[in-house]
Amino acid sequence: ILGSMSEGLVVFDLQGNVLEMNPAGLRLHGLESVAETKKHLYEFTSGFDVSDLDGNSLDTNDWPLGRVLRGETLPGLELRVRNARGEQAIWSYNGGLVYDRSGNPFLGILTIRDVTARKTAEAEQKRLLTENREQRDFLHGLLHAVPLGIAVVSGPEHRFELANIENYALAREPGTGLMGKTLAEAYPELAPDAARAIEKVY
User: Fold this and answer.
1) Residues 6 or more apart from 11 whose CB is under 8 A from it?
2) Would the pLDDT of 201 be above 70?
3) Burial category of 154 from C-beta neighbours within 10 Å (exposed 0-12, middle 13-18, buried 19 and up)
4) For the whole model, what pTM was predicted?
5) 2 near 23, Cβ under 8 Å?
6) DSSP summary character for residue 57
7) For tag attachment on the chain, is the N or C end more exposed, with fewer CB atoms within 10 Å?
8) How many CB atoms lie within 10 A of CB 30?
9) pLDDT in tens, 124-144
10) 109: which strand partners?
């Protein structure tokens, strides 16, 4: 079962000694064999670095294993890690203590997933959204600065995305706003000719 898991698994005792690590865990940590893991938490400091998502290096006691030993339950804790091979990634940790039937803790368990690709995609999406918002703000300011009626429409229905037309007498319903409406909804009598003109541009 341990060998077939896609997530890394680390099992440790209450003193902070690693007892077991599955193959996925070894790969993530940049280690070759379980024998390399049979040591105390503090002995992992050489070659390893763990930091928060802002890049602030964490004290060993604040590493996931140390936090579990203090009784914390980790629900998807995301941290930056540099492993024994110098590879850097973002890992998501889940874990906590394991209790016997009497309610006494006797083991700790951590599961680890590499979420670097997801976090990179999220950061890129955030960057693009910010860039898009800045561009829209710029266009919005520009549209309202020029002494001409201008609109930006999108899609086959020619839906209004940006416009200053509502500031001019051409608008059917001054003050109601055009954003989100289609050309046909806003100006039904002009829509056919306007749509043909727009299609010629493209």
Assistant:
1) 18, 19, 20, 21, 107, 108, 109
2) no
3) exposed
4) 0.64
5) yes
6) B
7) C
8) 16
9) 998 888 888 888 788 777 767
10) 11, 96
